[in-house]
């Protein structure tokens, strides 16, 4: 069965780009519009990987990561941050929150697939 | 390696671009409404963050879809306003004016991408970037010694923490020139 990726971004165009990219590579993609939406979706289904933006309304990426890591079922699920934020300070905060990796936009579709494959196969 | 995910042929880029144009237009309208409504004496964090997020979101989309000119202008806007929202620089009427002008310019750039016609005048775009950077330089001179590049203030010394490399994964950039510039700034 296809592995499921939860893609979180407040931008519809970027969500679609991520969704097309990962679906083409054989993954099943669930979209969420912000951290709050993602948290609800993560609670109601099994997700193999979370790919989240940082700066979003309602709940940002770091808060989402902390909330997921507080749940037993998400302690070991890889979480990648996909963001234009490239400062060492933000990356450090991501790491402290429990992020598995930090990916800087813009992304090349093949690069995204390669990283995802490396993380979940 | 599967070939499906590598080419653009599987993507309906025009649909994605259309989504981006719509989003960017909404962000610009929201930003303009905030800027026109703003009272510098009583501006709150929510308003500042909303203006920042508008520039930030447009930049993220523009960078993803390779609209370099929009990326560059919104990058300057974002960098300048990041200082304002972090209270490292005051909000001034001059800055509000430059943001309004930049918003108008972005609308012109988007209209050109969407419908063709007159492109945004490059010299005016460059002039806006210079004006935005000037705020940063005058603001940054307060917090760092002269001679240091202004952008360095946003890269804290914590960069050298051990183990950082195990976390950091960076994609092949769509636009090397832009990414290189960004990493230097």
Summed up:
Chain A is of the alpha/beta class and 121 residues long.
Overview of the molecule:
The complex is a heterodimer of chains A (about 120) and B (about 180). Chain A has helices spanning about 10-25, 35-45, 60-70, 90-95, 110-120, and strands spanning about 5-10, 30, 50, 80-85, 100-105. By secondary structure, chain A is an alpha/beta fold. Chain A is globular and about 30 Å long. The model of chain A has no long low-confidence stretch (mean pLDDT about 95). Mean pLDDT of chain B is about 75; it is low at about 1-10, about 140-170 and about 170-185. The interface of A and B includes residues 53 and 111 of A.
* Low-pLDDT regions of chain A: none
End-to-end Cα distance of chain B:
35 Å
Q: β content of chain A, as a range?
A: 15-25%
Structural class from helices and strands of chain B? mainly alpha
Helix/strand order of chain B, N-terminal first:
HHHHHHH
- Main beta sheet of chain A: 5 strands, parallel
Which chains make the largest contact?
A: A-B, 42 and 43 residues
The total count of strands of chain B amounts to: 0
Major β-sheet profile of chain B: none
List the helices and strands and how they pair.
The complex is a heterodimer of chains A (121) and B (185).
Chain A: E1 4-8, H1 12-24, E2 28-32, H2 35-44, E3 49-52, H3 61-69, E4 79-83, H4 88-97, E5 101-104, H5 109-120
Parallel strand pairs in A: 1-2, 1-3, 3-4, 4-5
Helix pairs in contact in A: 1-5, 2-3
Chain B: H1 13-37, H2 45-65, H3 68-85, H4 93-115, H5 122-140, H6 164-167, H7 176-184
Helix pairs in contact in B: 1-2, 1-4, 2-3, 3-4, 3-5, 4-5
């Amino acid at each position: 069965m296809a592995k499921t990726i939860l893609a979180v971004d407040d931008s519809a165009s970027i969500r679609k780009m991520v969704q097309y990219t990962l679906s083409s590579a054989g993954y099943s993609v669930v979209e969420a519009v912000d951290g709050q939406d993602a948290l609800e979706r993560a609670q109601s289904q099994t997700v193999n990987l979370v790919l989240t933006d940082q700066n979003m309304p309602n709940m940002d990426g770091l808060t989402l990561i902390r909330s997921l890591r507080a749940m037993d079922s998400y302690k070991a699920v890889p979480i990648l941050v996909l963001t234009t934020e490239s400062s060492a300070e933000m990356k450090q905060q991501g790491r402290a929150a429990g992020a598995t990796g930090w990916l800087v936009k813009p992304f090349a579709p093949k690069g995204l697939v390669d990283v995802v494959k490396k993380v979940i196969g | 390696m599967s070939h499906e995910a590598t080419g653009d042929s599987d993507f309906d880029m025009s649909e994605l671009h259309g989504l981006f144009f719509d989003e960017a237009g909404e962000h610009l309208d929201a930003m303009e409404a905030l800027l026109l409504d703003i009272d510098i004496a009583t501006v709150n964090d929510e308003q500042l963050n909303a203006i920042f997020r508008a520039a930030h979101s447009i930049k993220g989309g523009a960078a993803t879809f390779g609209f370099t000119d929009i990326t560059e202008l919104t990058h300057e806007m974002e960098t300048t306003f990041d200082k304002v929202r972090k209270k490292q620089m005051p909000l001034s009427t001059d800055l509000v004016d430059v943001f309004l002008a930049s918003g108008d310019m972005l609308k012109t750039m988007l209209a050109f991408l969407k419908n063709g016609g007159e492109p945004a005048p490059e010299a005016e775009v460059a002039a806006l970037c210079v004006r935005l950077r000037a705020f940063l330089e005058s603001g940054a001179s307060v917090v760092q010694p002269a001679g240091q590049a202004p952008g360095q203030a946003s890269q804290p010394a914590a960069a050298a923490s051990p183990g950082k490399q195990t976390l950091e994964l960076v994609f092949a950039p769509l636009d090397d020139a832009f990414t290189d510039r960004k990493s230097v700034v």
